[in-house]
Specification:
The structure is a single chain. This protein is mainly β and 382 residues long. Helices cover 4% and strands 49% of the residues. The mean pLDDT is 90.
């Protein structure tokens, strides 16, 4: 009997490695549109001539490693694992509300108990404060006073770029009716977040890792129902710095794309065709978007070499609320971008649009380049 099957029956799933290149059991299964674990090879050829016109006399495989590019819809839970793979600095945050007296709260403020204020977010007309420790008490600190009220059932996850060339790793599995394979030491080389009008918010993640192996363990994965994001739930904001993004007005966007590049390089040693280690090198971000040309504000950012903070966000209000007026959502903040190119469309019969490209820059004032805040119902750490 034939073992033929369609691609929809294949499954990709992964988990964090405690020790790099040491296999761990998979726990997170990722829905996908495309992507399959594949071996990649490099070869050395012997092109000696033997008095004939044939070019190649012998070939050896000299390098054997694995790769995959996953694409599909951004959902509110599993996307955290891909953000972890792309950035790798992770902090579980605790959400509170309060009415400050005697001070204006700012990032990095420390309260009694050494809770650090990591993020301030305005949702609707309410300001929410996110600390790296549980805070539900009254406190004073010099002239500061605060009575904090914890916002239950809102689980906040902050992802930042880890300033290291040795980011942690995953084990990844590819399971289908014919075979089950895995590879260790997985790292993300590039991660793209994109959105177009009348479509879902989507991702593309390119992975590299060590040589693919057969998996001899029976896998019984199950998918969890998660909340997706669409363009109708999304927006893009510009402000002079991160602190002003909460009061910025959304721009009418047609499409948007952000790419995180980690520029992986592999180390291979004598005595093996496998990769010995992977290292992320220089960290870069690339952005571009298309918007209606309704005024010259965005164009003048380019002309005047303005540096701006930028936020892409998506909030699924069709999902069950996490708390009153708080829904599963994602906030991607880039602290300082430089808009470098600008064009407008020249279709005589079409509505005039503008396309902009911009580059990321490290922001010394905030001590970071990019932050992603994910709000969902995941009560455990990524």
């Amino acid at each position: 009997m034939s073992n033929a099957y369609i691609g929809r029956r294949s499954a990709i799933w992964l988990w964090k490695e405690t020790t790099a290149w040491t296999k761990v059991s998979p726990q997170v299964r990722i829905p996908k549109e495309s992507g399959t674990l594949s071996p990649s090879f490099e070869t050395a050829q012997d092109t000696s001539w033997y008095g004939v016109i044939d070019e190649v006399f012998d070939t050896f495989t000299t390098k054997n490693f694995s790769n995959i590019t996953l694409t599909w819809i951004v959902r509110d839970d599993f996307i955290g694992y891909l953000l972890l793979g792309a950035l790798w600095k992770y902090t579980k945050l605790y959400c509170v509300t309060w009415t400050p007296s005697g001070w204006t709260p700012a990032r990095w403020d420390i309260t009694t108990g050494w809770a650090e204020l990591k993020k301030i977010l305005v949702i609707g007309s309410t300001t929410y404060y996110f600390f790296d420790k549980a805070t539900s008490w009254s406190t004073t600190n010099g002239t500061w006073t605060m009575t904090a009220t914890a916002v239950s059932w809102v689980y906040a996850h902050l992802f930042e770029r880890l300033n290291s060339n040795n980011h942690p790793t995953f084990s990844m599995y590819d399971d289908d009716p014919v075979s089950s394979s895995y590879a260790t030491y997985m790292m993300i080389n590039s991660f793209e977040l994109s959105c177009e009008v009348a479509d879902y918010v989507k991702f593309s993640a390119e992975f590299q890792w060590k040589q693919m192996q057969d998996n001899n363990t029976t896998l019984n994965p199950a998918y969890a129902d998660e909340n997706p994001f669409t363009a109708s739930m999304a927006g893009v904001l510009f402000a002079n710095d991160e602190s002003w993004l909460n009061t910025a007005t959304a721009v009418c966007m047609q499409n948007f794309r952000l790419t995180i590049n980690k520029n992986l390089t592999d180390i291979q040693c004598f005595w093996s065709t496998d990769v010995s280690s992977l290292h992320n090198q220089q960290f870069t971000l690339e952005w571009d978007f298309e918007a209606l040309f309704e005024d010259t504000t965005l164009r003048d950012y380019v002309i005047n070499s303005d540096k701006k903070a930028l936020r892409f966000f998506a909030e699924n209000k069709q999902a069950t609320a996490l708390a009153t007026w708080i829904y599963p959502s994602i906030y991607v903040d880039c602290m300082k971008v430089w808009l470098t190119e600008w064009t407008k469309s020249d279709d005589n019969n079409g509505i005039v649009k503008q396309t902009l490209w911009f580059s990321w820059q490290y922001d010394n004032a905030s001590g970071t380049s990019i932050e992603v805040l994910l709000l969902n119902g995941n009560s455990t750490w990524y």
